[in-house]
Write a structure and sequence with these properties.
This protein is an alpha/beta fold. The protein contains 13 helices and 21 strands.
């Protein structure tokens, strides 16, 4: 059914203005004053912001890790995402040595089949760079529309790839229009520090952070950036957590390299002290890279405001405290790494960023939606409100106050890492391709309604032109 959104304040990455939006056949048909259509449902957005739907570039739904599987699957995870204002996720496909990339994609297509309530895409892990894998990369780009590839520099003997694999992935991505992503930590040194901690009887959750110091994230980020420059390629550093890594990204960008950075809401509002709680409570806050000293938070806000970091992903990777996190009692290395954040990504950034004057409202939209659309081949189909774009739209109450809690969230996991945090700003109604997923804060969507998104190739020239226009250069 046609819809007209009236009386709301439209906010994109570049503009803020009041106008009506006509939605027809899943798309934004028109934007203007006094729009009318006798066959359209009228949605009154008085007092609300009208945002493009959020794009979360970093989720792990139904992902195996550490002998268990993340609690949220593509149904519960995307329902929670929708409640939080996110209308598109890009999830990570893990691959196996000796098996094809398409085999991994098939597995993740099966996981998501008939489950997702919002649109979704996939990133592919590259664990080895042999001839068959390198030959398959352009095939999955062209045929599957999967245009981003992740290389782990940590989790030795599990997920970690070597520098040759990273470099060959970078050169192949440059040639065929892919974007390379890295989990940037020095896995070899982490392995040594971890063994040393266990030998000394240091088994509590805090040692997860102490054996993964920020210097090792900074070193790996710098190494990846330099290999990117050597390959004349493009790099996206996921879940940046510390000033050491921010400095490496800023230096690379100052030299004109195509290096981009993502951080996550948890690093903006939580710190390392949470891992040092008694009675194993610290396990709730074990993820990688770990939480850092609180002083890093100001660095992040400055980097977001200045554009040295471009996106906010959730790194949603949820494990129950009872029955999953407690696998690591007596040995912090056995605590499943990850936390539940897909639902609150939007509100935390608005409340802590826009409401507290740290970023502008247009920067907020850029970080939670537009930049990810541009980097990952979805713009202008998604990431903005414009004629021809998918009608992924969030009606957002900027003054609503709520307290984040496991008692009210929509995730399957048994705790909230942000328990008790008060936020201002809340999605009220969420549309995915013009259809209600959340209406007046109630879920009305349908599992399986979300579509798999074939994405466009990475386009460095177009991104450069957009950046120059945005900065007035």
């Amino acid at each position: 059914m046609k819809k007209i959104i009236k009386n709301g304040m439209i906010v994109t990455a570049t503009d803020t203005y009041q106008a009506d939006i006509l939605i027809e056949n899943e798309k934004v048909k028109a934007i203007g004053q006094g729009l009318s259509d006798v066959y359209a449902e009228v949605i009154d957005a008085s007092g609300l912001y009208v945002f493009p739907g959020g794009i979360d570039p970093h989720t792990h739904m139904e992902m195996p890790f550490g002998g268990t599987v993340t609690k949220d699957d593509f149904e519960t995870g995307t329902m929670a995402a929708a409640h939080g204002g996110t209308t598109t996720i890009i999830d990570f496909c893990l691959t196996e040595k000796g098996k094809t990339l398409k085999n991994a994609l098939s597995t993740w297509h099966q996981k998501s089949k008939d489950k997702s309530v919002i649109d979704y895409g996939f990133h592919l892990q590259i664990v080895e760079a042999n001839e068959s894998v390198l030959e398959e990369i352009p095939v999955v780009i062209e045929e599957e529309g999967v245009t981003s590839f992740k290389v782990f520099m940590a989790y030795k003997n599990v997920l970690q790839a070597d520098d040759e694999t990273l470099y060959q992935t970078l050169t192949t991505a440059k040639k065929h229009g892919g974007l390379v992503m890295v989990h940037a930590e020095n896995g070899d040194v982490i392995e040594h520090l971890t063994k040393e901690a266990l030998r000394n009887g240091n088994t509590e959750p805090i040692y997860h952070a102490l054996t993964r110091p920020p210097e090792l994230e900074g070193e790996a980020t710098g190494r990846a950036a330099k290999l990117t420059a050597l390959a004349d390629s493009q790099l996206y550093v996921v879940h940046v957590t510390c000033k050491e890594a921010v400095e490496q990204i800023a230096e690379a960008r100052s030299k004109g390299f195509n290096v981009f950075g993502e951080t996550c809401p948890q690093y903006l509002v939580l710190d390392q002290s949470y891992l040092d709680q008694p009675d194993f409570e610290g396990a709730k806050y074990v993820w990688s890279p770990p939480l850092r000293d609180k002083s890093n938070q100001e660095v992040f806000w400055n980097a977001l405001k200045s554009g040295q970091l471009q996106t906010i992903g959730s790194d949603h990777c949820s494990f129950d405290f009872d029955g999953q996190k407690d696998l690591g009692k007596g040995d912090f290395t056995k605590i499943p790494n990850g936390g539940p954040f897909v639902e609150d990504r939007f509100s935390v950034l608005f409340s802590e960023g826009v409401k507290k004057g740290r970023i502008s409202i247009n920067q907020f939209v850029d970080m939670v939606s537009t930049q990810s659309a541009k980097l990952f081949g979805l713009f202008p189909r998604k990431g903005t409100i414009a004629p021809g774009a998918d009608a992924d739209i969030v009606l957002f109450d900027p003054n609503a106050e709520r307290t984040i809690s496991v008692d009210t969230h929509h995730l399957a996991v048994d705790y909230s890492a942000l328990e008790g945090m008060k936020v201002t700003g809340e999605p009220v109604t969420v549309l995915s391709r013009g259809e209600y997923v959340v209406k007046d804060k109630e879920f009305v969507g349908k599992p399986g309604a979300g579509k798999f998104l074939k994405r466009e190739k990475y386009n460095s020239d177009a991104l450069q032109r957009q950046e120059e226009t945005a900065t007035g250069r």
